[in-house]
């Protein structure tokens, strides 16, 4: 009886060792899919990893989605096996209109793609000026792309790192209708918080909130010198 138990244990351990070796020998994906979220060929700024794309691979009866998170500059990257994929946008996840069309991708090695979307609003790239080391003066224009959309507010965000948005910031100024009007150049002043003063630089960006849409559209992050 004891011998049978020992033999069973040895077989169990051997099975684990074989499975472990097979796992260790599992080949990792070597191809890279990179891309940008764009409007008329220009990348759109978003909240870092706040927007997600989905990749689905053809040819499998059972498969799960491959989530691909978008960086704040509108770029994304994924390590994949060669094959045929379908890339889709998640409804309601992004500062652009929903679209049901998917993008077919035949991946063989590294590949770069652009994913064209239709945003509710866009931003002309802002310019910034530091006034008396205490005020960020931002100049920009919000452009209305979808006539049915309503601009809820426009923010100017500040921080000590380049990861700056509505969730992660160390200071902001918020401006509503009448202060920022789509199609009209705007210049706004935002007071630099005390804990950010005395620095040599700040990271600054503008965010535009569409009424009824969770994610904002952002300008690219700028590193602004103070002194």
UniProtKB/TrEMBL annotation:
InterPro entries (UniProt xref): DUF3823_C, DUF3823_N
Gene3D superfamilies recorded: 2.60.40.2060, Carboxypeptidase-like, regulatory domain
Alphabetical list of Pfam families matching this protein: DUF3823 (PF12866), DUF3823_C (PF18003)
Limits of the DUF3823 domain: 31-118, 121-223
Originating species: Echinicola vietnamensis (strain DSM 17526 / LMG 23754 / KMM 6221)
Secretion signal span: 1-19
Keyword terms, alphabetized: Signal
Protein name: DUF3823 domain-containing protein
